[in-house]
Design brief:
alpha/beta; 15 strands; globular
């Protein structure tokens, strides 16, 4: 990839006005200027295959014509009105989301982000249950706000111990580095259920909810055995505890096998509350909550949303969702995700730096380790992030130790593009074993 240093002034300007803690990828950051399909171009004209989609947000494709047209047409009429007025695009989108939600008697509330969606879910659950006690998973991440950080089980993303809720963490997804790492799925599930029972036995009074990601995003795409949350729900139901499924990253068919991540755990019924964001807007700032009417309507105070579900974002999101369903992008995520996994799985045991490949559909985590010891190798992940960019591929990075490459391209990815991205990634990992 060519680098002319044109971006240097922009980097300096950014550092002068934005916080030091605001993460920025690459030693030489790139200024993404335009996108089309599964590719993006930077301001210097370099073309990249996008395997991260703006942090799992570009769900269908860059510059999807239907979304562009819907946004332009709505913007020409009215950009904003708020929830104080009737908003046809918001109502139409809510009807569509409710229909697809799998929630009984669904009510939909739109927000401007996934963080705000999870905040709202916590507000609903703690108010409905009259309790500030919350269960969350270890290694979890639910957003950047004060309350969302209070339920985050990953210290790399939690800058304060203060919280408006009392959080207890249970085992559920993360295995490496834990005493349960070597357990087969059934025994791991039994151990997690026993841990949940033990934690509940130590708490005093009502517990409001359990909030969990079906696949942990920032946590490195760690994935529980199918059915684990169904077993959890049996315990939760005995205590009247609500189940919140955080689908900000797993929703809309990204896992391929299901439209929602929670559907891999549906044997005991669905969640009480589902939160969503990212992919629904395809880059537009939109999130939301679906909950049973009894729970959603339990808020006993006035409330509005100034920006959630604004006419222009709702119109774009509706076009995006219609395109996703009409073109069976969930099925494409399953089929093309299998192509990508086949390429990566075949390298396990052959490449010494490749410790694990996991995830579902087009949500794949590649864990890097030190050859020989098998210890987490965050420096190799950082190096691989740079090397893949140089070869024209953009991936993400996460995990408890920062040693997991996160792969989450738009769901319209082709098999040919999957093979191209896998070839670049494996070429980099070949070199990683010698670095």
């Amino acid at each position: 990839m060519a680098s002319t240093g044109v971006h240097t002034d922009l980097v300096k300007r950014r550092r002068a006005v934005l916080p030091d803690w605001l993460s920025l990828y690459y030693d030489e950051p790139i200024d993404l200027e335009r996108g089309e399909g599964r590719h993006v171009w930077d301001a210097e004209g370099n073309r990249y295959l996008d395997f991260f989609g703006g942090i799992l947000t570009t769900m269908t494709a860059h510059a999807l014509p239907e979304v562009t047209a819907a946004v332009s047409e709505q913007a020409a009429r009215i950009l904003h009105s708020s929830t104080l007025y009737l908003n046809r695009p918001m109502i139409e989108l809510a009807e569509r989301v409710a229909e697809l939600s799998g929630i009984d008697e669904p009510r939909v509330f739109f927000t401007a982000s996934g963080t705000e969606a999870n905040d709202t879910a916590l507000l609903l659950a703690t108010g409905y249950r009259a309790s500030n006690q919350v269960l969350a998973l270890r290694n979890s991440y639910h957003g950047r706000s004060f309350s969302a950080l209070g339920i985050t089980g990953n210290r790399s993303w939690s800058p304060t111990s203060l919280s408006p809720v009392q959080t207890s963490y249970v085992h559920g997804s993360r295995r490496p580095g834990t005493p349960m790492a070597a357990l087969p799925d059934e025994e791991f599930t039994d151990a997690c259920v026993a841990d949940l029972e033990d934690v509940l036995g130590q708490l005093n009074g009502n517990v409001a909810c359990l909030i969990a990601e079906p696949v942990q995003g920032v946590g490195g795409f760690t994935t529980p055995p199918d059915g684990l949350f169904a077993r959890f729900k049996e315990v939760l139901d005995r205590h009247g505890i609500l189940w919140i499924s955080d689908e900000v990253q797993t929703g809309w068919g990204r896992t391929g096998e299901h439209f929602w991540g929670w559907q891999a755990h549906a044997a005991s019924g669905g969640p009480d509350i589902v939160t969503f964001a990212k992919g629904i807007g395809n880059g537009l700032s939109l999130g939301g909550v679906v909950a049973r009417a009894e729970i959603m309507n339990s808020v006993a105070a006035n409330s509005i949303s100034t920006f959630g579900g604004s006419p222009v974002t709702a119109a774009g999101a509706l076009a995006n969702l219609d395109h996703l369903v009409a073109h069976d992008l969930q099925g494409n995520a399953r089929r093309v995700g299998a192509v990508l996994r086949e390429q990566l799985d075949a390298a396990l045991g052959r490449l010494p730096a490749l410790g694990d490949v996991r995830g579902k559909g087009l949500m794949i985590g590649v864990e890097l380790v030190h050859p020989g010891s098998g210890a987490p190798a965050p420096e190799l992940a950082t190096w691989a992030l740079e090397e893949t960019r140089r070869q024209g591929l953009l991936v993400g990075k996460g995990g408890m130790h920062g040693n997991v490459l996160r792969i989450a391209p738009p769901l319209s990815l082709t098999a040919e593009e999957a093979r191209e991205g896998a070839r670049i990634l494996l070429d980099v990992l070949e070199k990683a074993g010698r670095t």
